Structure formats: structure tokens, C-alpha cells
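Page 42, continued from yesterday. The earlier attempt failed because a stray header line got pasted into the input along with the sequence. Redoing it now with the clean sequence only.
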Amino acid sequence: MNIVNGRNVKFVEFDTSTNWASALPTSNWLVIILTKSKNKQFFGEIIKKSIDRNVSYICSIGEQQDIVHDMADEEIVYRDVDIEHYHLPEHRIITTGHQDFEEGIWFGLFSANNDECEINDVVIINVTNDKSYGQLTLDLISKIDSGYIPKDD
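This time it went through. C-alpha cells are written below.
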């Protein structure tokens, strides 16, 4: 897609009929999960596959961002304390949620950092069932490249 703030940015449409997870990096990356109501059944799959591929930061944006944030935290704790060995990266995984689309994207591109793991790639996964988010994201990244900073509410 683009390079923003020294990070490779890729947009992925979540689709159960494709191998969407093959687009995920295996190190030094951040995931932004775009959410909307009534589609939370797939959040767990995205979170688990992201952790399995050593994600360093999980950002969620939109109507269901609190649910994704909580589910990610729960999955990390579960893997950390369970008797069976489930994969966790050597670095800690940071999670955050944002209601506002523009502010959340900007945060993921510029503010999100993990002191234990450099972030080189950002993968934006659209779980909204609204294909227009691809173009909205491209347009926003273009504005950000031109110096745009979302207003803080």
C-alpha cells in the first residue's frame, strides 16, 4: 500500500473465503482492526492469528473497539497463565482501542510504539463488512502524508 512514518502499511479485507492471514508479517508489526456492530464472531480468530505471528501492538477502531481490546487482553493473559503452552512473542503485546476512525489510524501510524520491539509494518484489517473502508483508508493516508492531523475531541 504505502510507507508512512517509516512503516509499511497494508490494507486487508477480512474474508473467510480467502487466506487473509497470509498477508500478516511474522515480526515487528502492528495490527489495526476496523470494527462495526454485529461482526464480532471473527475478532477472536484475528487476535489469535496476530499473536501467533508475533504482533507487537493491537489497535482496534470503531463501534466494537472495546470488545476487541478486551478480547485481545484476555487472549494474552490466557496464553500467559495456561498450563498448556500457547505461543506468546518474547516481547509484550500492547493493546489499545479508539472510537474515531481518523484518530485511530493516525495513532497506529505515528504514536503506537513498543519499547521492546520496533514496529516496521502496519496491517489494517477491515472487519466492518463495508468495502468503502479501503478507499476511506487510502484517502486518509494521503491526507496524513500531506500533513493532516485529526482533531482531538
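Notes: The longest strand covers residues 7-13.
Reminder to self: strip header lines before submitting.
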